[in-house]
Design a protein that fits this description.
It is found in: Membrane. Helices cover 44% and strands 17% of the residues. By secondary structure, the chain is α/β, with parallel strands linked by helices. The structure holds 2-acetamido-2-deoxy-beta-D-glucopyranose (5 copies).
Length: 947
Amino acid sequence: MDNHASEPASFWTQANALLRKNLTFQKRNAKTNVRLIMFPFVLCLLLLLLQKLVDNQLDKDKYKCGCTCTKSEDGQCLEKVCGAQYSDLDQVGACAVPNPPEWPPVQQVPAPNYRAVSADFISESDLPNPSCRSNGSCPITMLFTGNNQSFGQILYRNMIPSNFTMNTSNVMASLATDLLGSASKTENTNFLESAFFSGLPVYYLQKQCTENSTFSFPLQIESYSIQQEVTCAQVLPLWRNSPSEVNNELYKGYRKGNSERQINEIAAGYDFLNSNHNIYNVSIWYNSTYKNDTGFDPIALARVPRSINLVSNAYLQFLMGPNTKLLFEFVKEMPKPETKIKFDLASLLGGLFFTWVVLQLFPVVLTSLVYEKQQKLRIMMKMHGLSDGPYWMISYGYFLALSVIYMLCFVLFGSGIGLKFFTKNDYSIQFVFYFIYINLQISLAFLLASMFSNVKTATVTAYIGVFGTGLLGGFLFQFFVQDTSFPRGWIIVLELYPGFSLYRGLYEFSQSAFSGDKLETHGMRWGDLSDSTNGMKDVLIIMFVEWIFVLFFAYYIDQVFLSGSAKSPFFFLKGFQKKPLSSFRKPSLGKQGSKVFIQMDKPDVSQEREKVEQLLLEPTINQAIVCDNLKKVYPGRDGNPEKFAVRGLSLALPNGECFGMLGPNGAGKTSFINMMIGLTKPTSGTAFVQGLDIRTHMDGIYTSMGVCPQHDLLWETLTGREHLLFYGRLKNLKGSALTQAVEESLKSVNLFHGGVADKHAGKYSGGMKRRLSVAISLIGDPRVVYMDEPSTGLDPASRNNLWNVVRRAKQDRAIILTTHSMEEAEVLCDRLGIFVDGSLQCIGNPKELKARYGGTYVFTMTTTMDHEKDVESMVQQLYPAAKKVYHISGTQKFELPKEEVRIASVFRAVEIAKRNFTVSAWGLADTTLEDVFIKVAHDAQAFEKLS
Ligand SMILES: *[C@@H]1O[C@H](CO)[C@@H](O)[C@H](O)[C@H]1NC(C)=O
Ligand SMILES: *[C@@H]1O[C@H](CO)[C@@H](O)[C@H](O)[C@H]1NC(C)=O
Ligand SMILES: *[C@@H]1O[C@H](CO)[C@@H](O)[C@H](O)[C@H]1NC(C)=O
Ligand SMILES: *[C@@H]1O[C@H](CO)[C@@H](O)[C@H](O)[C@H]1NC(C)=O
Ligand SMILES: *[C@@H]1O[C@H](CO)[C@@H](O)[C@H](O)[C@H]1NC(C)=O
């Protein structure tokens, strides 16, 4: 491997590497992508289908203007006439009305039970006695005010007729001089005047009602003739001194609840202001809430024209005398052609359905992010030199591109099949809206990804969120929006939840499209945004601000909690702090605490410590790793004492050395490695890798570091070659150097032949994954490599192969290797350290260790139980210094001091023994590393128990 990538990879090289990896990854997920894109297609098709069904229904005769056959032959209709007269109530709305009927004008009056009477909550005493409500004879109160009372009185006397005129040969003309009133509610057109159809009584208003107070006359409406009955209703005009009094009384009479005693409705109020002989200046109170709420459309007519004519007529009579009349003969709607009932389902359901479609992307982005977190791939990439900038840029840009394509498909397809929801509204507004929203959604996914560590939980939560948001939006939030009495401020607060702002935006689109379709105009335009009832502007502003905020916050959280070298929450202030002048710092004087430790250290360990101190004072470039009294203490939790994982480790590792770390499980090896690779921060002490401090310059260290973690961190759907290409690019390998390095690397770990390199890593056996991990850790010529049990799970052949790779690799770099295999440690490592309970127990090369801790032969003999004593006495006789270290059911182990033992005499003794009793097996062995390990670990633990 001579492809030295001396320079760390630039921002764009890293970005390029990540982008290529992501694209390959996405290509593998083609099925998921297709399914994702299909979702809006299917939903749009479903809507189209439903729309067709609705259209089909509405196309039936039931909803068309009614017709009748005028000429038929043999059951065949030859001539048909259609019109309102042949229609039922469902049909009549669709009929052509070429010549709308004329209706006598009507004044709105309160129903008898609601008319104003004197009551305790009203101070005015001139109102009628409440007893009139029992027989429905309450007068209709009208209030008057103005600057000149005598003038006002003249006017209102002119307004209220004193007799009822009826010329049956000219009904309309004579009704114009009368004043008709009705308590029926108004419709939204004047094709039908509900006063004559609602079944409620029609009144004629008089100053005073006489005994015989009911009239009946024929009313001709087009071709219909109805016999209309009218009843007398008395009008009570009351003078008030100021407009505020009128106002107050109207206000107090407002219907609150349904208790009749609390209601005091007044038909109308007139303020004559400064009117006099020369000035006509009047303002009128009328009740615009008198409309039929059961109708679909909120627009309804209020019967105002009659009120205006009434007072105008009175003024004219005041000026010109009682014979002058300003007649108001009829009201008539504009003609209209036959219309079709239209019902745009897509626009109506749009809010809910499309919320789901757009939100659908959220779980996709979230799970993808959480996957990399759960599999620790993010940290793995970081450890191999991927910095945060390229990671964020590419991941964000990548999801943005995915979302844009998705939304584009959605809008294009919806428009293609002609859904009004898309075609009616201005596309530029739609683009801006969706663009801002998907950005917000991606930022939100980044933010939430930090709260999940498990893909399944994230997926389930996200989907519950998606469907819940849609339903809550459709069945709760929408009612708040429609309810005009719901405070707008609270709507804004609700819209701070992105799901609701999305819902609101889509709702506005659907409303605009729906009414645009119904009124045959366009939907939303930019100009409509300034409309106060249009919530789009607020939504756009809220989403934009939130996007910026969430993005910043997500980046911040990521930096503080996720990034390998857990940064301080105020990392962004780093620029203001003073940078260390030299990477190596002088050993601090305040080390008295650790001196205690030194006294307990074995000579080899304290020698290493002294070497480190020396190195810190006079740094040399030859040292790859220098650990200076590194400590890690986990704080006590739930009443447990603090856990000392690493208790002051000092270690110096020159280039080209492979250091093996042995130790029983839980000794603190992994804690040590985690500190070195930046997963956790040391509690105290530090380490320098290539002269860079792990506490402050982890990012720099990452560019020249390789890690083979204990558990393989691989993308299931990427091949071995793709993994190596990706990490190679991260290490700044390019072009032919890259291909060559990858190929060599694959060959060296035996993954090159038989197409293994191009199989998905998910399909690899455990051993293959292991080898790939080792190859990854070595690619791009890192200066320092950490290998956590690299050969676990390998067959002997691959293991030997792997050892060769590591042996070759250690020539010019430092390797720290943890292992449980003594054989491996002996073969690979130049030096070994045995790590027990957080501290090094011994350090040295394997031979030294064996000499120091071994120095004995191990003699083993197996006999039957009853001869155990014989064996023991035989050994004691031979070597009085022998020590029994082990015995179980006839098998005994003795340590014999090396300097005394002569192998020939041992053989001889065994021969003699065999003659005396049966020896099933025996052996004599030199100490192995294993024996050293067991001994050191045992002694350390015994010491631990003592202290
Ligand atoms: C009030 O109106 C009456 C009738 O028009 C008029 O005679 C009188 O002068 C007016 N009073 C004032 C103060 O303008
Ligand atoms: C009634 O109306 C008809 C037609 O306008 C008119 O000829 C007749 O004189 C009117 N009758 C009275 C009593 O005003
Ligand atoms: C409101 O309209 C419905 C149908 O259009 C009608 O049945 C009802 O009587 C109306 N109510 C009033 C108070 O006019
Ligand atoms: C106006 O009409 C509505 C609906 O009929 C009624 O509830 C309300 O009390 C009326 N307001 C006044 C001031 O009379
Ligand atoms: C009508 O009355 C209002 C309110 O008092 C007043 O501001 C306005 O000037 C008057 N108009 C005329 C033409 O006098």
